[in-house]
Structure formats: C-alpha cells, structure tokens
Design a protein that fits this description.
The protein is an alpha/beta fold. It folds into 2 domains: 149 residues, FAD/NAD(P)-binding domain (3-Layer(bba) Sandwich), CATH 3.50.50.60; 119 residues, FAD/NAD(P)-binding domain (3-Layer(bba) Sandwich), CATH 3.50.50. It contains 6 helices and 19 strands. Bound molecules: NADP nicotinamide-adenine-dinucleotide phosphate.
C-alpha cells in the first residue's frame, strides 16, 4: 500500500516537548521524546511511507476517494487514519514559555523524577491536575495545587486521594500571574480572588494541568465527535465514516501515552488494511 504521512509543521507532537520517555517498551535506559520520534520517522520511511511536513488545512470525507488539502495541493486516499493528537493547554504567560523544560512542564509522568525531594506546584483543579499531583507526590517533598476556584472539578475518588495524601496541599481561589525565575523555575506569583492580593511561593517546578485540547478542528462536520472535540469511535478505531480511522490522543483522553497511541496506530493500520481488502 502507498502511505502518505501528513506530519504537519509541528511534526512529532507532544513527544517533541518531552524529555525522558521511560514507559515505551524496547528502550531499557529510556529514550528522549525527539529521539523516539526520529526513530519512528526513519523506521516508517524505510518501509516506504512518504512524509510531508506541512499542516493539512482541511479534509473532505463526503465522497471517495477522501481528500486532504495541504497548501495548494489535494491528496487523495482510499482510507485516512486521523492521528493528529492533542495539545496541552497552557496558561499563556511569557514566563511559562521561557521556562518550558526548565522547571515548567505539562507531563508529570515524563518529568516527575527530575524533582525528587523538591517542592513543586501543580496548576489546575480537574482529574489531570489530581493525577499530576499524585504522580509528583511519589518523588517530590511537597506538592502545592494552585486552583482558581474554591472547589475542584476532579472526580470524587481522585479528590479524596489527593486530600488524603500528606504531601499534597492546596491554595484556593488563586490565579497564576507569572512563573518566577530567570534560567529555571524559582517560584510562582499568583493573585488571590476576590481580594486581588498578590502572593508568591518558592518552588522548583510548575506543572500546568489545565486540560488538553484534541487537534481535531479540521475534522469538525466530517466525522462524529463528542462535545470536547474527541473523535467518536465505533468498534475500536472506526469512526462514523467508513474508511476513516482514528488513533491516539485525537480519540483517547484517558491514557494519553506514546505507547497506547502507538498501539492504537497499529490497530488503525490493520483496520485500514482490512477495509481495503474488503
Ligand atoms: P478539565 O476537567 O477541563 O479540568 C481543567 C481544570 O483546569 C479545571 O479545574 C479548570 O478550572 C482549570 N483551568 C482551566 N483553564 C484554566 C486557566 N486558564 N487557568 C487556571 N485554571 C484553569 O481537564 P482535565 O483535568 O484534563 O480532564 C479532561 C477530561 O479527561 C475530563 O473529562 C476528565 O474526567 C478526564 N480525565 C480522566 C482521568 C481519569 O479518569 N483518571 C484523568 C485525566 C483526565 P475550573 O474548575 O475553574 O474550570
């Protein structure tokens, strides 16, 4: 089969922002995210996949062959696998961008071990934030959750686990204004609501856990999605359009690991092959 990978200008996705990946089988010392992507890219090319490093602007799944528009070109395919992933939401602060990888992270699974016996802050109040705080508590000395309201959005079970954990503390009604530090994270400046009083805490890392957004905008009105934009599946990787499959974080909000996405990619490829044979 002839396979075209429209890898996008930001090819490699979240793994390109990740340091050590230690739960991808086959690398006993772990592997850094960009190296893993480089390996995957070379492996796919060695089997004849063609890559283009531009974004798909739109798709048309209303007739066959399916069409994917990239710049002024239209690519046609008898099947399409959606594997556009998700992006972590960021607060949008200059200091957050500057200190990314220098104490600012969106992935405790990837980076928690770097902050053994340190004091770390988690921003957010949902399930992701509680999971990040719980994961960090295995390494850090102290985990402070800074949340903008006085109630968590997280499920009861995760809330209870976090409340029971002696290492996890909460700062309520607080909006992060700036992450402090020149070359690495040294603290957080936040504003209390409703008093508007500014306060600072000293810490070694800040984990932003305010949710993820699936990169599925261009598939809107083409395949069925849930209200958050995750592509709906029927029977493993099949979408609402016969011949269009989905794998990874564009569909999965729960596991969100490189290995689970890779496994889903393999399933989607097998499903696509079976579809073409049928
Ligand atoms: P989420 O439920 O949307 O929670 C995002 C949290 O971040 C909310 O507490 C929100 O505050 C806060 N927030 C959003 N924007 C912010 C901003 N600009 N500044 C400060 N705080 C901000 O996202 P999530 O936790 O990633 O969860 C997404 C979905 O995945 C949920 O359905 C969740 O149940 C699911 N999930 C499940 C598990 C699990 O079952 N183990 C794990 C992870 C995720 P407010 O509360 O004030 O809105």
């Amino acid at each position: 089969m002839k396979t075209l990978v429209v890898a996008g200008a930001m090819w490699g996705g979240q793994l390109m922002l990740t340091t050590e990946v230690e739960n991808f089988p086959g690398f006993k010392e772990g592997i850094v995210g960009p190296d893993l992507i480089d390996n995957m890219w070379k492996q796919a090319e060695s089997f004849g996949a063609k890559m283009i490093f531009e974004d798909a602007a739109s798709v048309d799944f209303s007739s066959k062959p399916f069409k994917v528009m990239v710049g002024d070109k239209v690519y046609e395919g008898r099947t399409v696998i959606i594997a556009t992933g998700a992006s972590a939401r960021w607060l949008g602060l200059e200091s957050e961008t500057r200190l990314r990888g220098r104490g600012v992270s969106v992935c405790a699974t990837c980076d928690a071990a770097f902050f053994k016996d340190k004091k770390v802050v988690v921003v957010g109040g949902g399930d992701s934030a509680m999971e990040e705080a719980l994961a960090l508590s295995k390494f850090a000395r102290e985990v402070i959750v800074v949340h903008r309201r006085d109630k968590l959005r997280a499920s009861r079970i995760l809330q209870e686990r976090a409340f029971e954990n002696p290492k996890i503390k909460f700062i309520w009604n607080s909006i992060v204004q700036e992450i402090l530090g020149k070359d690495k994270v040294e603290g957080v400046l936040f504003r209390k609501s409703p008093s508007n009083k500014e306060m600072q805490i000293v810490c070694d890392a800040v984990f932003i856990a305010i949710g993820h957004k699936p990169n599925t905008e261009i598939f809107k009105d083409q395949v069925e999605m849930d209200e958050r934009g995750y592509v709906s599946t029927e029977d493993t990787t099949k979408t609402s359009v016969g011949g269009v499959f989905v794998a990874g974080d564009a569909e999965d909000y729960r596991y969100r690991q490189a290995i689970t996405a890779a496994g889903a990619g393999c399933k989607a490829a097998l499903d696509a092959q079976k579809y073409l044979e049928g």
